[in-house]
Every structure is written in structure tokens, then in C-alpha cells.
Design goal:
Radius of gyration: 35 Å
Distance between the termini: 34 Å
Number of strands: 0
Number of helices: 43
Structural class: mainly alpha
């Protein structure tokens, strides 16, 4: 048996701990768990898994398959098993694609291990992970990283769990955890400290902290790490330093490709010892700079390459003017940097799209101004306006041009508040006026616009910009457009007005927004108990913290969803007990049981409740080992006994996740 084959056998033995229903007595169960713990130790020794890593496989996989839907796409029996035996199942999946087949076989193997009493033992492919002679999924080529990724994607793991997994001695598990992680502090720590370069690189690709990236780019001893960090750098000063000083050519190359400082590029071209780095610097150089240094380049090969770049510009300049087909002229213009040629094309080319591309590459503000005002084609004029920086000229276009799209483009670039106010007052085009409003800062003017403008689009923009509360009160109570009232409600702080809106507004979503913005507990209590809309009551409960009112809602509301929200916030154990035992809603009882702390009561619920699901939840809240031991003996050979056994083992062995 191969190493991986042996590991998978032990792994699958360990997984059985979740649903060990076939064991007939407490003593046999204890012996079985002792053997399973030995199996865990063997995994730790052979595979290098930490205790908590094994805990992932044991407790999370069992949770995954405790649901009735064992495998997606297959109906289930009431007993939780499969509707067909193994041979029938194998026949059903032969028509599937190989990737889908392999995935379902792995899942089926897990399910069979967890639920042996429901699935036929005579399955030809089940040993495929255990026996190297199998042709379905050879054990010696099993992808543990892929398996861990599947597990982590299927089950919920919070940041605390993932933080533990990245400390595992199992490289595959660390990499899989990094794939799921979003916590920047943990990712940074892994990128800096992990012993495996692949794990570090996986973390580094997700790191966003510039300081961490910079430190790794400069200081790390591993070339791949430095190179990857450089690719994520934006600091031009640091990139320049690395481009000149790093000891490894690939790292310098990565930096040179991002450097914009022409003096640094010249230094690289003249001094770097690797031709690929020098060529990258030549590629990044402006043509005028390259022209001045070409004779100083010592390498004949580099000079030839530099001349070819200059020759390319000459060729592209010729093509941009002389090619018959507009497509080829446009392609040449895209590669040009010579401003004189670009200006000629922008003014003289017979094709609008070619001139438009040329304009986007122009830097001469005088020429751009001329084209923005005088060109006959609107798309060319718009391209020129987008490149303009002259506020006076932009104002002239924004106020006087006949084309609305050009006035809009110019308005979006204006910063002068007086001119923007003038546009709002005099402009007839709604989109242009809206663009001007978004750039206004005068609260008095914004209030006037939000209250008086005839266009909802303009009033909406002004309302978003408003902070003046008295104006927002008028808008939220008087505006005829519900979307605008909703915006005002989001920005209001007046609790009395919000309460009025929450009760009286005609639109449900405006009322909901008002409730969510409320903090006044008296007003929230009134809405939570009296409103006729259950969604509004739920919104109010979410903001409530008054235990007396929450208790009233948890007991008296006619809707289970509302009671459920209230129960989630209750702390009164006596009341929670009453709800856990007597509420008509399974979901409400579930939330109540989760909040209980009385160990004896939880054990009684686990034993006596007619709902199996509630009993399981009760067991999961137990922390008293004596109570759990008693429950195991009382519920022998039942699912509750098995759950209690797993819960007890979790408490006694830190390898299991909480």
C-alpha cells in the first residue's frame, strides 16, 4: 500500500467519528474512539498534519454530510441515505465528464464512510482511494491540496480557524487556507514568515499593504518572492532602486518594466550586465531620450535593438500618414509617440476614428483647444475636451457649446463653483445639470436644488450631496419621488422624523430604511410591537436592545420570523427556556436552545425533544463532561448518543474544532 493510500485509509477512519451509529455499547464506543485517536496521531506523524488540521477533516466533513442532501443532484430517502446501491450509482455516473465523475466519487466515498448503514458495501470503486490497483482515482496521485480546497470551500471557516490552519505543518493545507483567507494581517504574516515558498507566494499575491510588499521586494532572500513583490509595487523610487541594485536579473527585469523615470532607464541601458534587462529599459524609454543616448550604448546588439525601436517609430509615422486602409493607419497611430506626426494625423486624416485616436495621444493644450472648438466631428471634439485642462476654455464649452454631450464632458472637468452654479441655473439639459450638481459644495444651493428643481434626477444628486438636516427633513416628508425620500432617510439623524417616516411613508422600502436608521429605543419598541408589516417589525427588532421589549416580541409576535430575531438578542435564561420548550416554530426554538446555558436542561431537551434537530443543537451547547457522559449512557445506540460522544471527545481533545 502506498503512502497516500495508507493516509487516506486512516483519514477515512477518523471521519467516521462524526456518525458512529453502528457501535452498540458505550464501552465499544470508547474503544473505537481510542483507536481513532491513535489514527489521528498516525496522520500527524505520517502526513505532518497538526491536531487542528485533523479537526477540520473530522468535524467539518461530518457536519457537511449530516445534512439530508448527501450529494448534489441526488434525491434522498427519509432515513438520509442514497436511493441506489453502489453498483447502480456507478452506472449512473459513467456518462458524466471525468472531472465531475472524480469529484462525485470522492464525495460519495466520504458519504459512504459516514453513513455505512445507508449505503451498499458492494461498491467496486469505493476502494479507489485506498487501493493502488484501482483505476478510478489512483491513491498515489491523489491531490491533497485540491481536497483541502474543496473542503474549505464547502464549509464555513471563520478567520480564527483559517489563522490556525496556516500554522499547520501540512503545506497543502496552508496553501488551501491562504486561498480562502482575506485577513490582510494574517496574509502578510504568512507571506513574510512561512517556510514554504509556494505558500508565501500564494499569500503575497493577495497582500495589499504597500509596506509589506516593499519590504519583501527589497529584503527577502528568495528570488521568486522578491520578483512577485516587485510586480505588485507602485512606488517609483523603490522600483528605481531595485532596477539598479538588486543582485538577481529577473528581479531587476520586473522592476525595469514598471519604471517610468527616464534617467533611471538610461542608467540601466548603459550599465546593466544582462541584455534582457537592458532591452526592457529600451522598450520603456521615450523616443526622444532614446535618440540622445543611442550612440553611448556600448553593446552592438543593444544599439541595433534601439535603432530598430527608432526605425519602428519612423515606419509607424510613415504608415500613419500613407497607408490606404484606415485600420492600418489607426494601428500605427496607437504605437506612435512623436507629437508632430500625431498632430498632423489628428488634423488631416480623412477617417474620424483615426483622428480620434491621435487626439487621445496629444499633449499640446493649444492644439487640443483648437480641435475641441473647431473640429467638425463631435467624437473628435469630445476626445479633445477630455484632454483639456484649461478651466476657462472648459467653462466656455460647458456654457456655450451647442452639443449637449460636449457640455456634459466639459462640466465634468470643471472645478469653479461659480461656473458650476451658473450651469445648474441656466442649462436645459438634465444630464449636464446633474453633472454640475455632483461637483457643487454649497449646502444652501444644494438644499434649494433638492427642494425646488423640477427634475427628479437633479434633485436626487443634490439630496445625496446634502448634509443640512432641516432640508433633508423637508425632502423626506414632501418629495413625491420615493427614491429621493429614501436617500434623505439614509442621511437623516432626527429620530422623531425617522419614526414618522417609518410609520407613515407609503413605500415599504422607505419605511424600512427609516427604521434601520433609528436608534431611539422607545420609538423602535413602538414599531417592533405595533407595526402591521412583519419586515418592518424585524428591522426594528434588529436595532432594539431593550430586553423587556425584546421579551414581549419574542413571546407575543404572531410571526415566527419576528420572534426569531428577538430571541437572538435575548439574555433572560428563564424566558429562553420557556421559548425553547414551547414555541411553535422550529427556527425560534433553535435560536432559544443555542442561547441556553443550563447543562441539565440542555441534556433533558436532547433526550426528550421530539425534534431530532433540536436535540442535536442542545447537545452542541453542552460543555459539562459529566452531563455528557450521563447523556451518552442514557441515549445509547441513538443518534443523540453519538452526537454526545463526539461533543465529549471534542472537549477532551484539542484536536477538534470548537
Amino acid at each position: 500500500m502506498t503512502h497516500h493510500s495508507h493516509l487516506m485509509r486512516v483519514l477515512l477512519i477518523v471521519i467516521i467519528t462524526g456518525i458512529s451509529l453502528a457501535i452498540s455499547s458505550a464501552s465499544e464506543q470508547r474503544a473505537e474512539f481510542k483507536r481513532l485517536r491513535a489514527g489521528v496521531d498516525e496522520i500527524v506523524a505520517v502526513r505532518g498534519l497538526t491536531d487542528l488540521s485533523v479537526g477540520l477533516v473530522v468535524s467539518k466533513i461530518t457536519q457537511m454530510y449530516e445534512t439530508v442532501n448527501l450529494i448534489d443532484g441526488f434525491p434522498h430517502h427519509n432515513g438520509g441515505g442514497f436511493p441506489c446501491n453502489g453498483e447502480e450509482f456507478m452506472a449512473k455516473i459513467t456518462c458524466w465528464t471525468p472531472g465531475r465523475r472524480e469529484k462525485i466519487q470522492v464525495e460519495y466515498l466520504f458519504a459512504r464512510t459516514l453513513f455505512p448503514q445507508y449505503i451498499d458495501d458492494k461498491v467496486t470503486f469505493v476502494p479507489s482511494l485506498l487501493n493502488e490497483k484501482s483505476s478510478v482515482i489512483p491513491a498515489n496521485s491523489f491531490d491533497f491540496y485540491d481536497l483541502y480546497c474543496q473542503i474549505l470551500h464547502k464549509v464555513y471557516c471563520d478567520t480564527n480557524h483559517l489563522a490556525l490552519f496556516v500554522q499547520s505543518t501540512d503545506i497543502d493545507l496552508r496553501k488551501a487556507a491562504v486561498e480562502i483567507l482575506t485577513d490582510q494581517a494574517i496574509l502578510a504574516k504568512v507571506a513574510v514568515e512561512d517556510e514554504d515558498v509556494d505558500v508565501r507566494l500564494a499569500a503575497l499575491k493577495k497582500v495589499t499593504d504597500p509596506a509589506v510588499i516593499a519590504a519583501l521586494a527589497v529584503e527577502d532572500k528568495n528570488v521568486e518572492v522578491r520578483e512577485t513583490a516587485v510586480k505588485n509595487l507602485t512606488d517609483q523610487t523603490l522600483l528605481a532602486r531595485i532596477a539598479i541594485e538588486d543582485s538577481y536579473w529577473a528581479v531587476r527585469l520586473a522592476a525595469v518594466k514598471k519604471v517610468t523615470d527616464q534617467a533611471v532607464l538610461v542608467k540601466v541601458v548603459l550599465n546593466d550586465g544582462f541584455s534582457s534587462v537592458r532591452d526592457a529599459a529600451i522598450d520603456n524609454m521615450n523616443i526622444d531620450v532614446l535618440t540622445t543616448v543611442i550612440d553611448a550604448i556600448q553593446s552592438e546588439f543593444d544599439r541595433t535593438y534601439a535603432k530598430s525601436k527608432l526605425d519602428d517609430q519612423v515606419r509607424w509615422a510613415r504608415d500613419a500618414i500613407e497607408m490606404h486602409d484606415w485600420f492600418f493607419r489607426e494601428d500605427a497611430v496607437k504605437k506612435l509617440v512623436d507629437q508632430a506626426t500625431l498632430a498632423k494625423v489628428a488634423i488631416e486624416d480623412k477617417d474620424t476614428s483615426v483622428r480620434q485616436v491621435a487626439v487621445t495621444k496629444l499633449t499640446n493644450q493649444i492644439l487640443l483647444a483648437k480641435m475641441a472648438i473647431e473640429d467638425k466631428d463631435m467624437s473628435v471634439r469630445q476626445a479633445a475636451v477630455k484632454k483639456l485642462t484649461d478651466q476657462i476654455l472648459l467653462a466656455k464649452i460647458a456654457l456655450e457649446d451647442k452639443e449637449g454631450i460636449l457640455r456634459l464632458t466639459a462640466t465634468e472637468k470643471l472645478i469653479n463653483q461659480t461656473l458650476l452654479e451658473k450651469i445648474v441655473v441656466t442649462e436645459k439639459n438634465t444630464s449636464v445639470r446633474e453633472a454640475a450638481v455632483w461637483k457643487l459644495t454649497d449646502q444652501a444651493l444644494l438644499a434649494k436644488i433638492a427642494l425646488e428643481d423640477s427634475e427628479g434626477q437633479v434633485r436626487s444628486a443634490a439630496t445625496w450631496k446634502l448634509t443640512e438636516q432641516s432640508a433633508l427633513v423637508k425632502i423626506v416628508t414632501k418629495d413625491k419621488v420615493p427614491q429621493i425620500r429614501n436617500i434623505a432617510a439614509l442621511k437623516l439623524t432626527d429620530q422623531a422624523v425617522l419614526a414618522k417616516v417609518a410609520v407613515k411613508d407609503k413605500e415599504h422600502y422607505v419605511r424600512s430604511t427609516a427604521v434601520l436608521m433609528l436608534t431611539d429605543q422607545t420609538l423602535l419598541a413602538q414599531i417592533a410591537t405595533d407595526d402591521t408589516d412583519k419586515i418592518i417589525r424585524i428591522d426594528a427588532v434588529e436595532n432594539l436592545n431593550d430586553q423587556a421589549i425584546l421579551a414581549r416580541v419574542a413571546i407575543g409576535d404572531k410571526e415566527g420570523e419576528v420572534r426569531c430575531e428577538a430571541v437572538k438578542k435575548l439574555t433572560d435564561q428563564a424566558l429562553l427556556t420557556r421559548i425553547a420548550l414551547s414555541d411553535k416554530s422550529l427556527h425560534v426554538r433553535h435560536e432559544a436552545v443555542k442561547a441556553l446555558t443550563d447543562q441539565a436542561l440542555l441534556a433533558r431537551i436532547a433526550l426528550e425533544d421530539t425534534e431530532h434537530y433540536i436535540g442535536q443543537i442542545a447537545v452542541e451547547q453542552l460543555t459539562d463532561q459529566a452531563v455528557l457522559t450521563k447523556l451518552i449512557n442514557s441515549a445509547r445506540d441513538t443518534p443523540i448518543g453519538a452526537y454526545a460522544l463526539v461533543q465529549l471527545d471534542k472537549l477532551q481533545n484539542t484536536r477538534y474544532l470548537p
